[in-house]
Design brief:
Helices cover 53% and strands 18% of the residues. A hairpin with a 2-residue loop joins strand 3 and strand 4. The protein starts with a helix and ends with a strand.
């Protein structure tokens, strides 16, 4: 029971006790007063009637005597009158039935008034004429007592209702600071640190509120310092301090994650010897400033073409990784890259199309990190030897479809729900069971299995992300995949769905119709959170309110603050696969530990992804994560009934 209800109950108990005591005292005093009044009236009536009857009895006028008694008796205040003549023993009896109007019978049955009677002798001098006995009628007492009791109950009821209202609002106002402290404490327990509470007027609560405000600010400072530690470690370990771009170590981790999944795209190696010429002409300070300006230009221009990973991997070497893009997009990216470099070359006073070379390796299936780096380096060397701006090792694999053909095939697949599903286990550490199963989709086209990595670039390119997500989510539900398992099923959302308001509304309606929404989880890419935080927050609220769950995929991949975790409050985060491919240096362990501590500090489960071998998993034992995922437990076909 809450403190409010306890105080409420205590005040009502005291109020009822006071009312009951007051009512009892008032009732007994009124009852005693009415009894005395009836006794007094009875004595007066007996004395008066005796005086009036004496002359008539003395003269033997019985008719007059009876008339006098009738006059008194008809007043209705007496239940019985008995007159006995002593001369001849004749007795006359007058009686009223015990009928009391306006008073409930159960009240009369309580016998609150005893029988009150008075017996007297009528005399004339020393001569005894008759005996007179009068019994009072209790109707007056019951009537008056019921009237007073009814009025008292009505008055007390009004006072009781008034007291309830006053107590409710009064206690609410008095206990408002305690309620705010309770809410604030719950938020602190959930690692949500809002503005400080205002100090209440109640002296006893001021110190408590001050202590809570201090504790909240201290905890917020701790989590902010963890966020700052992650940022500092990223800059220290994964950033090139001159250009502000990711370094070679970051690039190697991203490459490892890229090749571990079915995907498409290209990898560029760029050598810029013209920067060495700038160094010789103007010194290292001008060279470093030129590199910084060049990096900003590359990020600004190339981001408009496609999302990519741009790294400075050596003094005059840069790398560019494009995932989920087709041949046409790669060509457009290359043209923009050459144009941007030439602009900066011209600003430095060097000749355009000279002093730099680009090697391009287009990814195809079954390529390893070594294959991609070797192919890109060979292309770079050929471009240098041939004095060309670039050399492109294109994949010998023939394009399965043109862009328009992909549009037709994907639209048909989405409309007809031709997707096939597989799932991969997300296992709890120490063989404690399965946390969830992540869903993967694929298509059968021309008798061949087409993985998501092959058609997803065209899904994004053709803006079919929301339609695909609707199809897959609905298909997973209608095929009964959600209801088959006790653990949740994780479904990846595309970037387009995150910002699509119509998809948000559709998902809200869909989840309301589900019997087991708690068995559905959604993986939201971290890049989407940074690109459109407001839309992601709205989508996460819809998911949470419906009883489903969500997590952040590729956690730690982006360079930015982790403060979004406090806003979105995901149930879990999936550590980016690149962390599974970093070498085992102390700096990398510190970065992983800091990222994991940020999530764990907010009571968010941490799932390590990209685990291929048991030795990789053992590296994370000291970091105390909750679960892991990877080809150590490969995807499996879903057997549909």
């Amino acid at each position: 029971m809450t403190l409010f209800r306890q105080l409420y109950a205590l005040l009502f108990s005291l109020f009822i006790l006071v009312i009951a005591t007051t009512g009892y005292v008032q009732f007994t005093e009124t009852q005693d007063f009415l009894r005395k009044q009836m006794e007094s009236d009875l004595n007066n009536a007996s004395h008066s009637l005796g005086l009036m009857l004496a002359p008539a009895l003395e003269s033997g006028d019985n008719a007059t005597a009876e008339t006098l008694v009738n006059v008194i008796f008809e007043g209705g205040y007496y239940q019985q009158v008995i007159l006995t003549w002593n001369v001849d023993g004749h007795q006359q009896v007058w009686e009223n039935k015990l009928v009391i109007e306006g008073v409930p019978q159960w009240f009369i049955a309580l016998d609150l008034f005893d029988i009150i009677s008075n017996r007297s002798t009528i005399t004339s001098g020393w001569l005894q004429l008759a005996e007179l006995e009068i019994t009072a009628h209790p109707g007056f007492g019951y009537h008056e007592l019921w009237r007073i009791l009814s009025n008292m109950i009505i008055l007390f009821s009004i006072l009781f209702l008034f007291a309830i209202i006053i107590a409710r609002y009064g206690l609410g106002w008095i206990l408002k600071p305690l309620h705010e402290i309770s809410v604030h404490a719950k938020h602190i327990a959930q690692r949500q640190f809002g503005p400080e509470m205002a100090l209440p007027k109640t002296e006893e609560l001021k110190e408590l509120v001050t202590a809570f405000n201090s504790m909240s600010s201290q905890l917020k400072l701790i989590f902010d310092s963890l966020d700052e530690e992650v940022t500092a470690l990223r800059k220290k370990n994964l950033m090139d301090h001159v250009s502000g771009l990711p370094n070679r170590q970051y690039m190697m981790g991203r490459l490892g994650a890229w090749v571990s999944e079915p995907n498409s795209g290209a990898f560029f190696l760029v050598k810029m010897d013209w920067l060495d010429e700038v160094h010789h002409k103007f010194g290292f300070e001008v060279r470093d400033e030129t590199i910084r300006i060049l990096a900003e230009a590359l990020q600004q221009e190339l981001t408009q073409i496609s999302d990519s990973v741009i790294c400075r991997i050596a003094a005059y070497e840069f790398s560019f990784m494009l995932a989920d893009v087709d041949h046409e997009k790669i060509a457009t990216y290359l043209q923009t890259l050459v144009r941007t470099i030439n602009q900066e070359v011209a600003k430095a006073g060097c000749n355009p199309n000279e002093g730099f070379a680009i090697g391009i390796a287009q990814r195809h299936s079954d390529m390893t990190v070594s294959d991609i780096l070797s192919q890109a380096d060979n292309a770079l060397q050929q471009a240098i030897q041939a004095h060309k701006v670039y050399h492109w090792f294109e994949s010998d694999t023939k394009q399965l479809y043109t862009r328009e053909q992909w549009r037709d095939e994907l639209n048909t697949a989405i409309t007809s729900d031709k997707f096939q599903f597989r799932w991969q286990e997300v296992r709890l550490n120490n063989d404690a069971g399965i946390l969830q199963r992540e869903i993967y989709c694929q298509l059968q086209l021309q008798g061949k299995t087409v993985h998501a990595g092959q058609f997803m670039p065209y899904i994004e390119l053709l803006s079919l992300g929301s339609l695909l997500d609707r199809c897959l989510i609905n298909s997973v539900a209608t095929r009964g995949i959600v209801d088959k398992l006790s653990e949740s099923v994780a479904i990846n959302l595309t970037h387009q769905s995150l910002s699509d308001v119509q998809f948000h509304q559709w998902l809200a309606d869909f989840l309301k119709k589900q019997k087991n929404p708690h068995n559905i989880a959604f993986d939201i890419p971290e890049a989407g959170v940074y690109s459109n935080p407001d839309a992601c927050q709205a989508l996460c609220k819809i998911i949470r309110d419906a009883g489903a769950s969500f997590g952040i995929d590729h956690f730690g991949r982006q360079f930015g603050s982790m403060s979004y975790l406090q806003t979105l409050r995901p149930m879990y985060v999936k550590l980016d696969q690149s962390f599974a491919y970093y070498d085992e240096s102390q700096h990398n362990s510190e970065l992983c530990r800091a990222l994991i501590n940020v999530a764990k500090g907010l009571n968010i489960n941490v799932i390590v992804t990209g685990i291929q071998e048991l030795t990789q998993l053992q590296r994370f034992e000291s970091l105390h994560t909750q679960a892991y995922q990877g080809f150590i437990s490969p995807p499996q076909d879903i057997k549909e009934d």
